[in-house]
Amino acid sequence: MKKQAVFLFVTVTLLCIATGSFLRHVQNGHHLGKPGLALKAHTLKNSKGEVVANTVVALPEQVLDFSSEEGSITDLELAVLPKDTTFGRRRYTAPDKFVLDLSAIMMGTDRTSIHKPQFCLDGQGWKIQKSELQSVHMKNPVEYDLPIMTLTSVKRGKLANGQLVDLRGIYSYWFVCENRLTAKHEERMWWMARDLLLTGTLPRWAYVSCFVACYPGHEDEAVERIKNFIAVSVPEFQLPSASLSRAISSQPLPKTVAAAR
Distances from the Cα of 92 to the Cαs of 3, 38, 190, 220, in angstroms? Predict the structure, then answer.
């Protein structure tokens, strides 16, 4: 069993390395695919008040009973990520003070806009304890299951009274382009390489995430509230083409067709 696990790990690692090398050599000269998220004209500024972009991902201002405000894009993100990266970020607050951060990062012609989501948590001091592949049942624009990866992490924090507590972080994410959805980074890389090779198209992948910080013992509640939020909010900014493709691919084949395959 251990040998199989090691073989699988080595295979996936080599695949990612090979895919990255392949993309670096062939992505120049290929045309860019269409986005899987809705965009809108909006001025984005850095901490100095300088305009850094005029287009953002059109995240909804109102979701359920949450109020929201535009989230900030850090100077580090603006400095490190490619200039044609498109951002979308909002912080949502429910009447009971439950806070959820929704973020979207969309690549342009440079694939390095999108990275492994685990890097985000590690860089902010969160220690990942477990990863779970889950799904959210969507009803709009059609019924389908949206795949999400949920990471549970821990970080030492301080309360207002000075007491130290190990906070929990619940981080759910997925990747989307014009006609595909996945919660797996390696699968996204594979599809990108395949599309470049077979169609000459560089898919314009985006990485969408929801984050909630909570106290120990409230993790399950946070996960369920994130899922409810996703079910309502995603149809507002994720374009139908990706959702429809997911719905079609998840439908069981007729027995005669399945037998033929």
Answer: 46, 19, 34, 19
Lookup: tokens for 143: 């019924």
Distance (Å, rounded) from C-alpha 30 to C-alpha 111?
A: 13
Length of the chain: 261
The pLDDT of 135-146, averaged and rounded, is 94
- Euclidean distance between CA atoms 90 and 88, whole angstroms: 7
Q: What's the CA gap between 127 and 175, in Å, rounded?
A: 22
Residue 146's pLDDT band (cuts 50, 70, 90): very high
- Report the C-alpha gap between 213 and 218 in whole angstroms: 10
Bridge partners (DSSP) listed for residue 128: 153
- Report the interhelical angle of 2-26 vs 185-199 (nearest 10°): 40
Confirm whether pTM is higher than 0.85.
no
List phi, psi (to 5°) of 114.
-105, 130
Phi, psi of 90 (to 5 degrees): -140, 150
Residue-level pLDDT at 251: 53
CB atoms within 10 A of CB 114: 21
Using DSSP, state whether 186 is helix, strand or coil: helix
Q: Which residues pair with 89 in a beta bridge?
A: 103
Q: Is cis: bond before 203, omega within 30 of 0?
A: no
State the DSSP code for 238: B
